[in-house]
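Chain A, query sequence.
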Amino acid sequence: MFQRFRPSTSYSTSSSTSYGYTYGDYNTTTTSRPGTRRGTGRVSTARPRTGASTIARVEAQRIICAVAESRGISPTVGLAFVNLDTGEATLCQICDSQTYVRTVHKLKVYGPSEILIVSTAASPKSKLFSIIEENLEDIGSKLTLLDRRYWAEATGYEYIQSLAFKEDVEAIKVSVTGNYYAALKYTDLGLGLVFALHSLRMRYEPSEGSMMIDVSTIYSLEVVQNLQNSKSRDCLFGLLNETLTPMGARLLRNNVLQPLTDPEVLNTRYAAVDDLTKKEDLFFATRAALKNFLDADKILTQLIVKPTKSTIQTTEQAINQVIMLKQFVNSVNPIYEALTGTRSTMLNNIRELCAPENVTLVQELIDRVINEDTTYAKQPLELRNQRTYAVKSGVNGLLDVARTTYKEATEDAYQHSTELAEEYDIQLDLKYDNARQFYIKIPASELEGRALPPIFTNIVRRKKNIECQTLELMKRNQKINVSHQEVILMSDQAVEALIEGVRIHMSVMFKICEAIALLDMIAAFAHLVTLNNYTQPQLTDTLGIEAGRHPIKEKIMQTKFVPNDVIPATYASFPILHQLFARLGMDDNIETNVSTFAAEMKDIAFILRNVDRRSLATQGVVKQSHYGLALARVVPLPPGVVEHATFVAHKLERHMLRKKKTPETVLKEKRRKLILNLKEHLVQAHAGVLEGEVLTAWLKELQKEFINRMTALEVEAASAGQESDDEDEVMEDRSEHDEEERPSTYASQPSVMTISSHMTTSGSASESTVRAMSEASTLRAVSDNER
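Chain A, predicted structure.
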């Protein structure tokens, strides 16, 4: 439908071309990520690649993104995303950190097909440019450099004023400050796509208001794509995606990747889901009405984009879009009727947007030009017939003549098919596709024992059928095609006038489309709640979960899932969180020579740099042993290997635990030596010459030293005993037959204070010595027993 062109301008090939980039006046020369990374003189701040180059999408979309930066201690980055498939421009301003983590996250979530950046940022490379360049492969994008004048702020405001809906212009101009001209102008000059005046959806998306989930976490937690099978629905998005429209699926994906953090909006949505789940008539009527919607985003976008050059093909497509618009408008009223009686504020707002008066004017414009019985068809022949008879009679005097010719030529083709069947006594059918137009299909069984008559040509064998044509049929195809083109050309003026009239009402049409998408997502949640018996969480300052079930595991498990304290649950309480990080997996990155350990360390460093009090964080250490054996169980190893490895691992672990118990013996030996040492000192004092105050002072020092050393040994013994108890509990849970009774560490020992209490300063030296000797003998007997 669109004509692409490259303006005839001379390209400036300055020093930046050494980096593999070319840029000029209206540069459309782009580059993908270079094969080798050039040094930037700093440590990489990007999180390691996860193995998936892009986040799984509902569908492929053409998105252009312009990036602008105001440098400073806290840099502010402006992003403008223009979705060429859904006719929406999203403007973002992000107060980012020096690592530009939020900017990169936003780029990866939107996944633009092309990123526009000012050419001066490439030579020398700015930090933002280098970080974007490092992440190009993960984003799945290519880079285009444009001259600085395309980031002129004043010109950007003019462009916004001319393209945005009139009622939205002032709000957008107040919300944004920055350079958004490049992305909008590039769609015109670089891609040859022109948006009609005041027809482009523009919205401002602040950096706050949604949780940031970095791409590695999205990948690791299988948020939008299953790690084992990219086509599987066994992921969070696949589980939640019970939507019935393409618009609803796109909105759901955006909400999964950027969850809302506004409690008021969340509670409003909860109330809408609750209303749909409690009122069966409301729920079933809503779901039934949603089934009739085509992709309204794309329909409306095609109507607001003007081709640079009109052709037969663009006019054909325009008629197709008008027919689909007719079906979209006819599908709105059933939504209005289905939502009758709702008590939800959100559902009432959607109902008001879908009120008949909001689509009446567009409906009248369509009814003046398009036949009432015209409907959108998916089959090629039926769709061509609908295009041919779409415009009402009387709009163009020659239109009816061209239609008559088309009708007669088509009837001739069918008549020719009937004559062939009768003449050659062959059962055949007349089929149609866009490439060959009419062709003949003959079952192979009809030709058993005989050759295909020579009148048939362009023969193709497909399984049990033979497809062919005749010269006469090809002549009639040509006649049909010419008459069809005449019909299209004669319908062009009426269709273009209709589209111009409809463009005036595009603002309300897009708002209705957004309302339908939101309703579809909410209805999908209601379906899930009913089907899986999910519960509504309370938004509080505490994280609390009771009897939860893992939603994906519950879906894929053959046996009943045992509830635990993780959602969905019978009760849940959640604080509003703004960041979610995860490190999961053992994915060596061979291409960049990054081992599992190195990748883990880089991921953890990334998390620690960005985590704050509003983040959900993994407190304490997760105790998990033998995770290698758990991994081995999912690998198709020969029978018995894992079982034998488990036996050996447990045997080695028991051996290590026994070795860890040997410090108890060492401690007993240290205690015995300390007591014997005390005995020797007391014996020497008894036989020595020290008396009176001198002996008393010496005994005090001996007492103090003994108490300190024995206390230290008791603390050491207590610590070793606690560790041994913990390890024994683990072993008892794992293998009951290995349970052992540990001897008490110091149950039979006399107290240190008991010994020291007898070593008083009163009495004669000889009495003190005798008492100490008596205690020493007792201690020696104890130590002998322990040994």
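The longest strand covers residues 63-70. Residues 692-734 form the longest helix (43 residues).
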